[in-house]
Amino acid sequence: MTPADLAAAIQAATRAVLSAHELDASVVPDTVTVERPRNPEHGDYATNIALQVAKKAGTNPRELAGWLVEALADNGAFASAEVAGPGFINLRLAADAQGKIVTDILAAADTYGGSNIYAGQKINLEFVSANPTGPVHLGGTRWAAVGDSLGRVLEAVGAEVTREYYFNDHGGQIDRFARSLVAAAKGEPAPEDGYGGAYISEIAEKVVVIRPDALDGTDAEVQENFRAAGVEMMFAHIKDSLEQFGVNFDVFFHENSLFESGAVDQAIATLKDNGNLYEQDGAWWLRSSDFGDDKDRVVIKSDGNAAYIAGDIAYVADKFSRGHTLAIYMLGADHHGYIARLRAAAAALGYNPEAVEVLIGQMVNLVREGTPVKMSKRAGTIITLDDLVEAIGVDGARYALVRSSVDQSLDIDLDLWTKASSDNPVYYVQYGHARLCSIARRADEAAVAIGDPDVSLLVHDKEGDLIRTLGEFPAVVTAAAELREPHRIARYAEELASSFHKFYDSCQILPKAGEDPAAIHSARLALAMATRQVLSNALNLVGVSAPERM
Q: Looking at residue 517, what is its pLDDT?
């Protein structure tokens, strides 16, 4: 019996006893809280349902709790139920009811933890979207890991997810990038507002190799030569880095296409037609303050050129025109203003502003021997995705970036994340999985099979702790999806690994040498293999490998 099953049973019992006492059963909420007590002596689970609904129903909490204890006593899934304090109910599950979680996991396999709560949702998940003016920096790398993990979590709860990279190939930054390449090719210093780093010189050299005439022609022609070839090379490097990081996108959307296709003009025409764009001082302004923004925004400048927000507006329209029911943007720490701006754009276009979500990620820093690591060898002024992977590997980098909430700045201790010890979180979790795989191999050698395990034999305290931890996984996945917090999965994996290691140290899973296999060994093997499955599922949602040997 999972916590969700337990909550459903308590909900049904509460409605039944209220009705039996001719009280209002409609006050019972759709969601019943069931928690594991901090003190194991208080039981396996506890609920405060009586405190929640008693007054609304016309009784007092302890009286209602007493009725519920009597009703639950008739349910064979419960070994005991008792009233505590002002109306809490402490519950202990029968061993077979609790152990059913093990067989449920083995039956569900890699689908355990998932659900269909987001079935029918078509989500556009845009993340990374770094400008193709340099390698992916640490902030973008954080979004690569977190965004990919969030996509996996949303798919696990039934959503159809489009992973999208917005390719900023239009505007002033690209012009500065091109000028930097031209300067490097000519052996001149980088422009004052340009880009430095060895990668600029490397790309400039490659452009000249594939385009020997790249420096011929007018200044505008030369810049266009380096812009076109340089952006293509830089973006190819970005895509390759992301693929090596295990992050793949369904759509690479080119910002420039919004202007070339007429999408920007169409969005502007729509806003003029519906009255949400007005002319003032020779410019065209979006009535964004009418839709929650702190001020109106210039969309078409007085010189007739489109402001940056024009592309944003057209992009919002494009996302919803493709049938997405929710658009999630994952942006950097300096983009707080975009939250109201993008929602205002959606509302002005006639879309539901609540269907636009903006997640803001904080900065990432690297630390080695207690000292900040400040500079990349190739990028000059930034640390890149490639630098991080080189330092701690793909699994270490992804896990380190995912396991903390993105609304907090993050320091990655390179010394910690390269340790082959339990101090290293990813090593600790992966070692747990590898140890479980070793148990499976040794079980084959010892001729221990799971068969139809008698899970009622799993009565040891550490077995119960592990089973209850396994049962929490679906709720963790649901919370990670609804709150957009995949770090919950990583933290859960560490808790599960800890619970498993304690079980392993306390319980003899396989028979000792010369001992015949018994029913308890099959039951414990089933518990171990269920744990292996859930660890594997959790690591997959984080985007980290589940090794069989370490």
A: 94
Q: Mind listing the pLDDT tens digit for each residue in 388-399?
A: 999 999 999 999
Q: Which tokens go with 435?
A: 């140890």
Q: What is the pTM of this model?
A: 0.91
Binning pLDDT at 50, 70 and 90, where does residue 167 land? confident
Are the CB atoms for 75 and 96 separated by under 8 Å? Answer: no
Task: Return contacts of 492-496, CB within 8 angstroms, 24+ apart.
Answer: 492/538, 493/429, 493/535, 493/538, 493/539, 493/542, 494/403, 494/425, 494/428, 494/429, 495/469, 496/432, 496/466, 496/469, 496/470, 496/531, 496/534, 496/535, 496/538
Return the closest-CA partner of residue 33 out of 9, 49, 44: 49
Burial zone of 16 (CB within 10 Å; 0-12 exposed, 13-18 middle, 19+ buried): middle
According to DSSP, the β-strands at 371-373 and 297-300 are unpaired
pLDDT band at 380 (very low <50, low <70, confident <90, very high): low
CB 535 within 8 A of CB 546: yes
For the chain, first and last CA: distance in Å?
33
Tens digit of each residue's pLDDT (9 = 90 or more) over 54-85? 999 999 999 999 999 999 888 888 899 999 99
Express each pLDDT in 119-163 by its tens digit: 999 999 999 998 888 899 999 999 999 999 999 999 999 999 999
Query: What is the spatial distance between Cα 347 and Cα 356, in angstroms, rounded to a whole number?
Result: 10
Please state, in angstroms and rounded to a whole number, the distance separating the CA atoms of residues 89 and 464: 19
Helix (H, G, I), strand (E, B), or coil: what is residue 367?
A: strand
d(Cα 426, Cα 451) in Å, to the nearest integer?
A: 32
Who's near 259: CB < 8 A, 6+ residues apart? Answer: 170, 306, 311
Are 19 and 52 within 8 A, CB to CB? Answer: no
- Reference 105, options 228, 220, 1; nearest CA is 1
Helix, strand, coil percentages for the chain (3-state, nearest 5): 55, 15, 35
DSSP string, 388-418: HHHHHHHHHHHHHHHSS-TTS-EEEEHHHHT
Q: CA-CA distance, 154 to 118, in Å (whole number)? A: 8
Distances (CA, A) of 502 to 143, 395, 528: 34, 25, 12
What pLDDT does 49 receive?
A: 96
CA–CA gap between residue 443 and residue 435 (Å, rounded):
12
Distance from C-alpha of 431 to C-alpha of 549, rounded to nearest angstrom: 8
The runs of H, that is alpha helices, within 213-291 are: 219-244, 255-260, 263-273
Count Cβ atoms within 10 A of the Cβ of residue 67 and give its class: 0-12 exposed, 13-18 middle, 19 or more buried.
buried
